[in-house]
Design a protein that fits this description.
2 copies of one chain form a homodimer.
Chain A lengths: L10 H7 L7 H8 L9 H22 L6 H8 L3 H4 L6 H19 L9 H18 L1 H10 L5 H24 L5 H20 L1 H6 L4 H16 L5
Helix pairs in contact in A: 2-3, 3-4, 3-8, 6-8, 6-9, 7-8, 7-9, 7-10, 7-12, 9-10, 10-12
Chain A binds a DNA duplex (18 and 18 nucleotides) through α5.
Chain lengths: 233, 233
Amino acid sequence: MMETLPISFTLAEFRKVTPLDESNIWSFLLDRNADRISVKRRGPALENLEKIFVATFRLANSVGFRAMTLRDLCQETGLSMGGLYGYIESKDQLAAMIEDAVRQTSEQMRTWFTHLKSPIDEVECLLRAFIFSSEILQPWLFFVYLESRTLAAEQRKVAKESELRFHSHIAALLEATGGFSEAQAFLLAAHCMACVQDWYVKRWKYHAEKISVDDFAESAVKLIRSYAEPQRR
Amino acid sequence: MMETLPISFTLAEFRKVTPLDESNIWSFLLDRNADRISVKRRGPALENLEKIFVATFRLANSVGFRAMTLRDLCQETGLSMGGLYGYIESKDQLAAMIEDAVRQTSEQMRTWFTHLKSPIDEVECLLRAFIFSSEILQPWLFFVYLESRTLAAEQRKVAKESELRFHSHIAALLEATGGFSEAQAFLLAAHCMACVQDWYVKRWKYHAEKISVDDFAESAVKLIRSYAEPQRR
DNA sequence: GTCTATAGCATGATAGAC
DNA sequence: GTCTATCATGCTATAGAC
């Protein structure tokens, strides 16, 4: 699907080809955790899953996941403690489900633009895809970014490795442009990651200034491209 | 003091002129909160303060501040619950003391390089000072970055304003170089902030690759300078 | 100035009614 | 499939001994 996109695609163009978005993610979640969810009727299950995760994002954001209580979660969702446990196995597994969903999308993303011939074009596409995915799934990525350190050691490790794989992929592409040593490419890739992650980490800052995600992506891509291809300026 | 620094100073040079570092911060903390700390003998008080805050950073990092218990804190510091309350008024005030210390240093930083004539030189100096300060006071800045959202509304607001003031200062300087519109300068300043904050947020990534803080600062500064001054490349 | 002991309440999880 | 009621544990904060 990604082959149909231009190099400098917009959010609207990206939306048409991305496999996961705000509305179909609940089905994805239900199917992936079907064995642990005891509720069988699909319609109400999807509605309650949405309530549970939206409330989790809100509560974890205001007090942190480990300090959020299941009683607060019940109050926000309208479920009882017993009802809630039909959807989750434990509080820790609730976080694990989020982390798993995010890792799935980020792992897929690395393969989306491997058909491109130019390394710097692939970098641009990956940065745009990262920014637009984080626009669509902001609460999910935000949760993992801020909470993975407080989760079980195993999940923490997996989250770090996932970030590092994406980082290394960008670094390898930058090195392939021929303009950078391995160490320079690693650092420049780190700057790329920091810039694009800022879109979902500091969302309040960009919203207050009414900056659109397309303008943000344009600015980040231009900064990196002008450094990797100085002759074009 | 900052007037004696060259434009592209190193960590070693910055250390000689910075007012606050790892060892004198405990005195600063004790004096600033003297009215709330009931312990009077200065020597033991400084030792216990160091134990309390170092343990707080470690525990908050592994479970989050709101989920960290004062019992864990007592076990790590060797103090009893009663003893601990000689140094803090409440758990919330412990976080407020950290937030206050960090805000002090960040507010001072904005005035350090106003004597420079060239806006882009001032940007370089501010970015280096920010990175080197965060190297020296990493656990403090890391705590505020990750925990301010979970603190009281008042503190959350103050932390955001502090970030925004620094951001706006950089943006104004970039606009003063003459190469950017207000909106472009805002976005480029945001990229600056994200890159330099990454040094203390993703420290594990840089340490694993054995990247020195001087190399990191050089890379970040070069990226921004090459964009703001394309003719020099 | 630091300790032990405890008050008063909230927590994650489960059992069993319907 | 969802509820209410309850368990055992752990929490912040304080009182009072030394």
